[in-house]
Here is the input.
Amino acid sequence: MKLLFLFLLAGSNLLFTDWHADFETARKEAKANGNYILLNFSGSDWCAPCIKLRQEVFGSAAFEQLANNSLELYDADFPRKKKNQLAKELQQSNDALAEKYNPLGKFPYTVILTPDGKVVKAWEGYPGNNSTLFIEQLKSVCDAKRP
Here is the structure.
């Protein structure tokens, strides 16, 4: 059982290897690389649709390819369990992002932004519960125009 838990824990960390540790870095990289920013609001330890979205979409090879070519990634996480609490500065940053881009507190909530912070498109929840469809929607936004 312990081995299974460690395997799952290690696998979940792999899903976020290309995600930026802070939003400002994602913004700077987007500007430098001519990419959009994918800002995802999640509740990593309590929101079942957030967990499903992370596993089925953000953990897929198709998403990884799209992200490597067109996106800078940032996950504004809002965990509830005490053991998963974020550092105070990071929590304040995520709170400010939520106030600006997700004032109704929807989870999951995914936003495509220009490097200057303009909203290009937003999705509430896990659209259609279909990873292929959601990745196609993301790709169409990225292909339509470049920031």
Remarks:
- Residues 18-144 form a domain with the Glutaredoxin fold (CATH 3.40.30.10).
- The chain has one domain: 18-144.
- Residues 47 and 132 are 21 Å apart (CA to CA).
